[in-house]
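ok so for the tutorial part 2 we go from a plain amino acid sequence to predicted structure tokens. step 1 is just haveing the sequence, like this:
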Amino acid sequence: MRPIAFDEMNAWLEFTPLHAIQIHPTGIALSPFVIPTLQRVDLINFEHSNEIFNKIEEALFEYIDIHFGIVTRKIQSDYFENGYAYIRNATRATVFSERHFDLEHPDIHLANLLLRVLGTIRGIDHVLQYYHVFPKLRTALRAIFLELVTSSCQLQTDSSLFTEKNITRLNLPLNHALVDILHLAQLDLGLSEKKAQTQMGELLDFYRYLAGTLIAKPALVTLHAVEHLIFAEISHPITKKLDRQKTLFSSAFSPNLAEKNFFTALPMAFQNALKAFQSPICQNHSALSAQLRRYIPMGIKNGFLVNFIAIHPATQKIIYNHHFLRCGSPVFVGHGESEASIEPYTDDNLRQLHDYVRRFLGEDKTIHFTALLTRSLINADSQRDIVRRTKRVLKQSTDHFSNIPINHEGTFLGTSIAKIIREHDDYVAYFVLPLQRQKRAQEATSVAQLTLSMTDVILLLFCASGQDRTGLIVAMLMIRLFAMVCQQHTIPMTVEQATERYLCGGNPAFIASFSCPGSMGIKPQTNPAIFPKHIGTSVFSRISKTNKKSAISNKVALSHIEKRFVPDFKTVFMTQLTLYLALSAGPFGGLLIFQSYQLRNQKRRMVHACLDALSHSQSLLDCKDAIKKLAEAHQASLLAKRQSFFFRHIRDGRLGKIIETIEKNTPIMQQPV
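step 2 — the prediction. this is what the tokens look like for a chain of 673 residues:
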């Protein structure tokens, strides 16, 4: 990769906000950021929806950062492997003593909600397009998002209503509307009745996790300025897959039926979604989010090569330039694969890291795998298995492995430090008592910093997700480097001052959800109370917990999962009419579905029985034939009379006139104002 040009970086420093900033009663108005984007394109009828979804995501990122005095813009440059980067100019970021916002302000909650919904809708939209089912459901999907944006902008204008609680309340009905769309498209098949509520929420999240593979993943650049020095933290996403990885992954979709694998172990609804994303996942520019570690064994998840650069503008010289790696678990932690079948995936994932280092640096290096995992039987994510499986594969290589558990439980356990570190002259052993999380975190940071000083070894920090524990140690490492470089160039800088300067840029919180936007910040339980409280609010946030599970009511979930039955004719007729009118109502289809699905559970349960009739009906005659086939499956006597009654209405044109009237009088969708 070519070295970065000073003129290029200097241009980034001149960035100013793209959107006008307006103040609402409690903060910064959202509408100037998202509404112009929506008004430039008719989202409802726009064929290339992914393009407009990208623009909305960019606007929301800019909106979040502007609260902290950070100017964010997406650029195109051949310096970055995938051709794009988000540049975050934090050289004029608001200092903590003057800030009016933190990560839990209602503005930030709202923007993160929109990012999460955008990801889910983008994923569902892709699958609907892939399977070519019920095209008007895509219209409904986009209409729901437009309605949410409009309602969100209106909510901001009333300070008495614009609260975290009211923003959170948007989640449940919104998720129910999305579940209804999946139900209509038969994309919720195979879910367990006993686990209906949990699996419905997980399914919505699964679509959001997969949606990140639909774009060329940009790099992330955060710029800082300290007196006469400019610092750049550049996180290059690790996205290029090996040919062997793609082959092994693709073969899982046509398995020997006698064998179980990660794909066949999933419920059918998850299989249908994953199959639609098979091609995007294998693209060399698509990134895999941390959450996919439970579903996909192939590829590094949430992986970045971080390049920390310090430049002296007067001489235009790079005075500090170091690299290290960070990622989530390189080991699959889901179901369906045996120990023997997981090993080739793990081996390929580690080779993927080496391949990226070789291409980026022009030479291969041994990697010091520094895990931050707890080897116990009771923790989540099978962290004990991650450690064991990683070490097993590394025995066949020249790489090194350390494990330094930094959470509460981990402080009761010992560390495992690689021989190359233990035998280094500058290594200092730590004696950590149980619950001394700050000291254990300092130990992990010291090991990381020592690895950076080695010329033939590159550091890799990882935990289960690569977000929270990894993000914490990366932040602590960057603070030390910040202070060290400043002191080496006659700038007085204590660790406390470096902490405030570095965290003003907000990079630890931003990158935590960069691979799967909408859950910004590091989880509060990761906080070892090492940062001052007023600064910690820029790193740790309850919003980060929203990447866990989408809220779904048990009643709604069960209404979709209950055993399918063939309903009586009246129910078929009434529900067909309701759905046909809703989905024929043009751009208002989504809103009508949202409202009309407050029907009784009986009518909700019969949707699948008449879905085929609706999805394949191009005319009333087709609809009649489909209903006739449905009726033939039942006892003929009573149904035949009802069938005749229905056909008579079609013959007399009464149903046709109703539909014709609806289609002629459908109002044109107004863009939000």
